[in-house]
Amino acid sequence: MSQQVRAAVFRPDDDRIERAVELLDSLGATPVPDPMLAIEPTGATPEPGAFVVLTSKTGVELLDEAGWEPGDAVLCCIGPATADAAREAGWTVDRVPDEYTSAGLVDHLAPDVDGATVEVARSDHGSPVLTEGLRDAGADVHETVLYRLVRPEGAGKSAEMAAAGDLEAALFTSSLTVEHFLDAAAERGIREEAIAGLNDAVVGAIGPPTRDTAESHGIDVTVVPDEATFEALAVAAVETAAPTYHE
Q1: Where in the chain is the domain with CATH 3.40.50.10090?
Q2: What CATH number belongs to 6-38+154-241?
Q3: What is the pLDDT of residues 188-247, one digit of tens each?
Q4: DSSP letter at 94?
């Protein structure tokens, strides 16, 4: 694939952005790393519950560092990355939904949580779809905020590139990455220009909630992968953005 596919990626500035850059390189794209999320741990740990729901690798790692254990709780992880991290921590993962979204997790757990206590441990920007859906299924839900997600100082070079027409792809991995990208663009006085630049590029959203957030701000989403993983998102977006050559 052509090196001309400049692809912006907004993962947190840790091993996730490093792996994302490596993956985009392997796909023949030119990565534009611009982390839009920084993690501020709260130091909190989950309260006891019959079910404990973890929604991110970050949450697992913070709890592992704190020495937390799931005990006898049914441990539920929203997707494979979270589940793999939990297994690496030495925990038994009991439930992973087929669809790696809040709605998918609700559908997966709904038949089993009526009358049960469910502890949801996640960031301060978790979707209400999860907690409200579990309550609607009859669960007694408690939520613990493990960490806050903030925008790193200086983020936004991708917004400048989008506004200048210098991006072929942008890969949004959460609603918050969309909002922080637009905030960074607004701080630079180029919000509308950045949106116009994205709409001339291939915009990938990791799942329907991220797509809906982008579209609500006037961003045209080109790609939503069938599987809500970064790898699937990157492959689909780069393949869509890559120029097609005819001999």
Answers
A1: 6-38+154-241, 41-149
A2: 3.40.50.10090
A3: 999 999 999 999 999 999 999 899 999 999 999 999 999 888 999 999 999 999 874 333
A4: -
Please, which contacts does 60-64 make with residues 24 or more away whose CB atoms are closer than 8 Å?
60/85, 60/86, 60/89, 61/85, 61/89, 62/146, 62/147, 63/89, 63/121, 63/146, 64/89
- pTM of the predicted protein model: 0.77
Domain 41-149, what architecture?
Answer: 3-Layer(aba) Sandwich (3.40)
Terminal alpha carbon distance of the chain:
15
| Residues with pLDDT less than 50, the chain | 1-3, 244-247
Tokens 């993956």, residue located: 23
Print burial letters for 106-119: b (CB count within 10 Å at least 16), e (below 16). bebbeeebeebbbb
Q: In the 8-state DSSP scheme, what is residue 112?
A: G
**CB 204, CB 225: distance < 8 Å:** yes
**Exposure of 99 by Cβ count < 10 A (0-12 exposed, 13-18 middle, 19+ buried)?**
middle
User: Cα–Cα distance between 10 and 168 in angstroms, integer?
Assistant: 15
Please state whether 243 falls in left (phi above 0), alpha (psi between -120 and 50) or beta.
beta
